[in-house]
Each structure stands twice: as structure tokens, then as C-alpha cells.
Amino acid sequence: MRRVVAILVFLVSVPAGADARYDELKRVVNRNTGYAHMTRGVNMYTLIALRSCVADGDIPVLAKMLGDKDHVLQLAAAGVLADMGPLGRKALEAEAARATDARERMVIRDALQDAGAPDRRPLKDYPLTERERKSIRGCAKTP
């Protein structure tokens, strides 16, 4: 009986942990979202902040974000997955095959095109001043 209870507690805690990570990454995106002409959008600060918070273990969470109703969150997740090398591209390709929403498919397609561009620069190499780098608000703790 104790074993069953322990297994149930574990199964219930795993999604809660994933949801907590999703919420944490969503907060990072929201804190670093740009606004121009009264429109909310993704900029390089958003992508760099999110990228600084994730590791390969976060790929499933980022893939889940591709299906979020918030277009800014979709764009940020796709941009970061494109920057995460072959594992990120593989996740994008898998989500492209699964996606039924046209907007989601378009975001993924654009990210895959960007990932394969010959002149693509990794997010860590994006030229920022020290002041700009300090203004980016990433995760409370790095992965």
C-alpha cells in the first residue's frame, strides 16, 4: 500500500514540477518582452534572457510552449529551440509534425529556417553592451 501511495505522489509531483518550470520560463519571457507602437513582442533581450535560463533538459518545456495561446511565448520558445543546436531543431521538427494550428506551424517553420541559415549567430554571441547585458532579467537560478 505504501508503495502505491509513493508512486501516486511521484506521478502527481512530476507534472507539478514541469508546470512550475513552465511558469518560471513564462515569467522570464514576460519580464523581457519588448513593446513598440503599443504592441507586445519578442526582441533579442527576450531571446537572450530565455536562452540563459535553459539547458537541454528544458527542451520538453520549450516544446510545450510552442502550443501556448500567447504568440510572444511561442516565438520566444521557437527562437531559443533554434539556438539549442541539433536537439532543439529535432524538437522543432517533432512539434511541426504534431502541430494543427496554422500560426504554430508558421512559427516553427520560421524558426527552422532561421536555425539553418548560414549567417545565423548564436544568441550568446549577440553584440550587447555591458549595460544592456545587465538589464536582461533572466532566471533566479541558472540551469
Question: How would you sum up this structure, described in words?
Answer:
- This protein has seven helices and two strands, in the order H-E-E-H-H-H-H-H-H.
- It is mainly alpha-helical and 143 residues long.
- It has a domain of 97 residues.
- A two-stranded antiparallel sheet has the order 1-2.
- Strand 1 and strand 2 form a beta hairpin.
- Helix 4 crosses helix 5.
- The longest helix has 30 residues.
- It is globular and about 40 Å long.
Please summarize what this structure is.
66% of the residues lie in helices and 4% in strands. With 143 residues, it is mainly alpha-helical.
- Which of globular, elongated, flat, extended, rod-shaped describes the shape? globular
Helix content: 55-70%
Question: In whole angstroms, how far apart are the ends?
Answer: 36 Å
> Order of strands across the biggest sheet?
1-2
Radius of gyration: 16 Å
Features:
single chain; 143 residues; mainly alpha; two-stranded antiparallel ribbon; 7 helices; 2 strands; 66% helix
Q: What is the topological layout?
A:
Layout: H1 2-31, E1 34-36, E2 39-41, H2 44-53, H3 59-65, H4 71-83, H5 85-98, H6 102-115, H7 130-135
Antiparallel strand pairs: 1-2
